[in-house]
Amino acid sequence: MTHKRKKALHQRDDLTGEHAVGDAGQMIIACLFAAIWISDAFFFKYTTFLNQYVPNGFRTPCGIILLVLSGYLAKTGLSIVFGEEREKPGVIRKGVFGVIRHPVYMSEILLYLGFLMLSISLAAALMWIIAIVFLHYISRHEEKLLLERFGKEYEQYMREVPMWIPRLRKK
């Protein structure tokens, strides 16, 4: 993203904000996950022994499904938030935001899980757990900002839409 575009996004009144280390933290985690997964899955194979117990015919389709779902959540979530400027700021409930509150962060979690399914690396799985903890932390921070800005409207949204795991039935 160009500096000019990034500056314009930060000046939008319809966006609430994010954690100060959110983007940098996600980039660091992504690089660490990739380095660990690639080196363990393809070169050193120190923690990939579970691959012999989980058939490739199961792991590969599951991994591909998770990667496609991850791409869908990321694309639709980001296009809803950044694709259109809303005249009146408010809680976004449309599309994937009506199913879970943090679809973009969930896409990141599913991306890592998809790669883990393709080649199970316990070292990379540990990095995946660290990513989940980090994403949960920054999600909670961002929810505090949204609660400050939108109050009862966001409280209602939190009651109706789960943070991470979609409900099978509506309340």
Keywords for this structure?
single chain; 171 residues; mainly alpha; 6 helices
The total of helices stands at 6
- Strand composition percent: under 5%
Shape: elongated
Q: Structural class of the secondary structure composition? A: mainly alpha
Overall average residue pLDDT: 92
Give the uncertain stretches in residue-range form: 1-9
What do these coordinates show?
The protein has 171 residues and is mainly α. It has one domain (23-160). Helix content is 65%, strand content 0%. The chain contains 6 helices and no strands. The radius of gyration is 18 Å and the shape is elongated. The model is unreliable at 1-9 (pLDDT under 50).
Q: What's this model, at a glance?
A:
This protein is mainly α and 171 residues long.
